[in-house]
Amino acid sequence: xxxxxxxxxxxxxxxxxxxxxxxxxxxxxxxxxxxxxxxxxxxxxxxxxxxxxxxxxxxxxxxxxxxxxxxxxxxxxxxxxxxxxxxxxxxxxxxxxxxxxxxxxxxxxxxxxx
Length: 114
Fold this sequence. Notes:
Elements: E1 3-7, E2 10-12, E3 18-25, E4 33-39, E5 46-51, E6 57-59, E7 67-72, E8 77-82, E9 91-98, E10 102-104, E11 108-112
Parallel strand pairs: 2-11
Antiparallel strand pairs: 1-3, 3-8, 4-5, 4-9, 5-6, 7-8, 9-10, 9-11
């Protein structure tokens, strides 16, 4: 059974930091392109960042320089380090894995509030 289990979300003040984790099981994790998406209330889900099996990264323009995606293949885990968070980045953050098939995590709420 394939599972992508996210953790690390929560409430944070604007300007603060959070690190999201997504641990995969049931897949050959090292072969997968792993991504983080987010969906804010009333908006479409959009790509935040992705990382290939070779650790090449790609970021949405809005997060470049503030967010960092990384992976630990030994732990089957992908991370998203988010710094200098903005109020408009309140959203459900989901991890996504793609190789021959694709899989989604359950989503993790990140709320920006002072």
